[in-house]
Design brief:
With 180 residues, this protein is α+β, with helices and mostly antiparallel strands. Helix content is 31%, strand content 22%. The chain has six helices and eight strands. The strands form two sheets. Strands 1, 2, 3, 4, 5 and 6 form a six-stranded antiparallel sheet that branches. A hairpin with a 3-residue loop joins strand 5 and strand 6. The N and C termini lie far apart (39 Å). 27% of the residues are buried.
Length: 180
């Protein structure tokens, strides 16, 4: 530790996790970095006002996951609680575990490799009635499930609807319970 490390070992002054902050937690070998590896040079999967989402690898199993890294300046407990409550429907991203350190909350989920509905809309430009109906049917099913549990997502948009694979019949999954 020295005068430089002081900055990387304390929470970032803004609400989005910084790379230097993540490097600091990696150096400290916090709970997340004892279990998972992140390539900080790799492009991020997504970001929000208070978080970044990256690909990570479980060191023991070499299994790939997604991790949503949220600054501890933001209370993520409700997001975690509601995501946990909604587990059990194939249309909800699977939660693996949640870890915390002094700077971040790490929400580790399955890695959805099929991309966003938004990207698919841009790429295809037109959907057949059957394709659109299939997507809507999956979306209605998961929303009905969440509502039956008393959970309202409040941020359903094509960017928060991801496919588990690139196949045409891929499972559509709801992600990002930050506003739920």
């Amino acid at each position: 530790e020295n005068c430089i490390s002081e900055d990387i070992f304390k929470p970032s002054p803004d609400k989005r996790p910084s790379v230097s902050n993540l490097v600091g937690m990696k150096i400290k070998k916090t709970a997340f970095f004892q279990k998972y590896r992140i390539d900080l040079k790799e492009k991020i999967l997504g970001d929000g006002s208070f978080s970044v989402c990256r690909r990570c690898i479980n060191i023991a199993t070499q299994q790939e996951y997604a991790v949503k890294i949220i600054s501890r300046r933001v209370d993520a407990s409700q997001e975690v609680r509601l995501l946990e409550a909604c587990q059990g429907h194939p249309g909800v991203v699977t939660l693996v575990e949640v870890l915390m350190d002094q700077c971040h909350t790490y929400i580790i989920t399955e890695l959805l490799k099929g991309g966003e509905l938004f990207q698919r809309i841009k790429r295809k430009r037109k959907f057949t009635e059957a394709e659109a109906s299939g997507i809507m049917s999956k979306l209605i099913s998961v929303v009905n499930y969440m509502h039956s549990l008393g959970v309202v997502h409040r941020d359903l948009k094509p960017e928060n609807l991801l496919f588990d694979s690139t196949a045409e019949d891929a499972q559509l999954k709801v992600v990002d319970f930050g506003f739920a």
